[in-house]
Design goal:
This protein is an alpha/beta fold and 279 residues long. It has 12 helices and 6 strands.
Length: 279
């Protein structure tokens, strides 16, 4: 007899999604193999989604709606996916991610931690686990954040990826996160990033002092129509801005900051020094 794992839909939004998927599948009298053939994935993947071991993607959710007849209904899996994503992200960030998915150029400036798009899974997990340890999110939500970040990172290796320009304050490579091994792997990942054809990475060293143009993180997106979007956040929420009167000055400041930064070659040298523990 097949051992069917009991689900706990109240434990998290991902678990609730999985339980809903199982109910819908069983209402059609289908096995996991039957649903997998119709959606176009493995039965193991269906099992992993149903038991919350893997997060569903937007594409998976849309296919599930088509196959299970839930498109446009209150039980829509696409709708559940959006609710789940909002549940693990800062208010306002999902809107930014929708723009990020369409961007042809992404400009980032970060202070204190490595930008999410460049984080290793272990580095991202250490940060998320710390939030869970402080009680600001649950451990399940922490894991879901890391899984969602992995989905965003996949865009950097697609057939036509966006150009990604990153400026990091020196504090990003000096602040230890997750222990020596995690930090070493993260710094190694940054060096590997510089070898990608769609990447530019520069370090803003402490030595530039007051010439650093920003004191808060900056996200700037160039969309296919060449319009631009900026994103900023507080501890409580994020805010997307498309007004050129406020976005263009940020672009000017970004260009000025790049002029004060180390070149990519010198930035790589500083990262390698940080790996060795050198000042």
């Amino acid at each position: 007899m097949v051992n069917i794992k009991e689900l706990q839909p109240e434990s998290s939004l991902r678990a609730a999604y999985g339980a809903r998927l199982r109910r819908a599948r069983e209402s059609w009298g289908w096995r996991q193999e039957d649903l997998s053939e119709r959606i176009g994935c493995s039965s193991q993947h269906i099992s992993a989604v149903e038991t919350a071991r893997k997060p569903p993607t937007l594409s998976f959710s849309r296919k599930a709606d088509q196959v299970l007849g839930t498109k446009g209904t209150k039980d829509s899996f696409e709708r559940a996916w959006h609710e789940m994503r909002h549940g693990i992200l800062l208010e306002g960030f999902p809107e930014y991610v929708d723009y990020e998915e369409r961007a042809v150029e992404i400009r980032l400036f970060q202070i204190g931690i490595v930008p999410g798009l460049l984080q290793t899974p272990e580095y991202a997990q250490a940060l998320a686990d710390a939030d869970a340890g402080r009680g600001s999110i649950t451990q399940q939500q922490a894991n879901e954040r890391v899984a969602f970040l992995a989905e965003r990172q996949e865009r950097l290796t697609r057939e036509r990826p966006p150009m990604l320009l990153v400026v990091m304050d020196e504090s990003c490579i000096r602040r230890p996160v997750g222990g020596r091994e995690v930090m070493d792997a993260q710094l190694r990942r940054l060096v590997e990033f510089t070898r990608m054809p769609n990447s530019v990475l520069q370090i803003a060293p402490y030595a530039i002092g007051e010439r650093r143009t920003f004191n808060l993180p900056v996200n700037l997106l160039t969309l296919p129509d060449r319009s631009m979007v900026s994103y900023a956040e507080s501890h409580a929420q994020g805010h997307v801005d498309r007004e050129s009167s406020s976005v263009l000055p940020l672009l000017t400041g970004y260009h000025q900051l790049q002029g004060e930064c180390l070149s990519q070659a010198d930035s790589v040298a500083m990262i390698e020094q940080a790996r060795k523990g050198s000042p």
